[in-house]
Amino acid sequence: MAEEHIAVRHFREYLRIKTVQPKPDYLGARDFLERYAKDLQLQFRTLEVRSKIASRSLTNIISRHTDVVPVSEDKWKHDPFAAEKLENGDIVARGSQDMKCVGIQYLEAIRILKQAGKKPKRTIHLTFVPDEEIGGQDGMRGFVQLKEFKDLNIAFALDEGLANEGKNYKAYYGERAPWWIRVKAIGQAGHGSRFLEPNATIRLINVINRLLAFREAEKQRLKYGRKEDGRMLTLGDVTTTNLTILNAGVQVNVVPEVAEAFFDIRIAPTVDLHDFKEQLEEWCSADG
């Protein structure tokens, strides 16, 4: 049996580290990446709050996140954290596409450059950040606010994209903005035998219907709309809206005081975010 490629071996090892939310093994990921960096004779630093990184010249940064989304193991044919390699070469694991594969590709690209004696004109910083799958509050968002990030003097940043098959690569220069919103409606609580007003669930349903009508309009625009040059619109050209969580009520015969819904909205690059926020506020306030 042929020896497994070093990139594949490292990829599978990375996949076996359970960085799954909500309790990701970030220490395991850090230890793995530190060993990787030492193997490539790269400088390695774990940054929490204090660091002495400083750079006066322009630098580049390429970034990946280490955490992955939760998994329903009973829906998988293979252990999602075993990184099994199938006969056709496929590797099955949570995080194999989003985004541990690209993290390994970055590191192996550096190995190839170093072996070829290539030296980039600018310093390249690799960041492996936590928390991306749950909003990045304690990951990249916190990092960019630190003095240590500003000291890097970043001129160009490259982050998550789509995989490319073959040797032709696509460069993405625009991305939809993710907005995760919670809509909370409050009404009069009481026994289920009465017509209670204001009614929290009815108020929430009205807002939901407005958002779902917008969703359907964008869905039809994706299906039939065209760009200025005549090409059909793609998913990245429209705003997607999905109702992901609904919460209301404590038991079947009690009208709830509070009802709430969560939406995952991905806003197209052409949409003015201020205008969209005003539209959301209008939809939410229409029922008082």
UniProtKB/TrEMBL annotation:
Alphabetized PROSITE patterns for the sequence: ARGE_DAPE_CPG2_2 (PS00759)
GO molecular function: aminoacylase activity; metal ion binding
UniProt cofactor note: Binds 2 Zn(2+) ions per subunit.
Keyword Hydrolase: yes
Keyword Zinc set for record: yes
A biological process term (GO) from this entry: amino acid metabolic process
Cofactor or coenzyme needed: Zn(2+)
InterPro entries, per database record: Aminoacylase-1_M20A (IPR052083), ArgE/DapE_CS (IPR001261), Bact_exopeptidase_dim_dom (IPR036264), N-acyl_aa_amidohydrolase (IPR010159), Peptidase_M20 (IPR002933), Peptidase_M20_dimer (IPR011650)
Protein name (record): N-acyl-aliphatic-L-amino acid amidohydrolase
Protein's organism: Rhizophlyctis rosea
Gene: ACY1
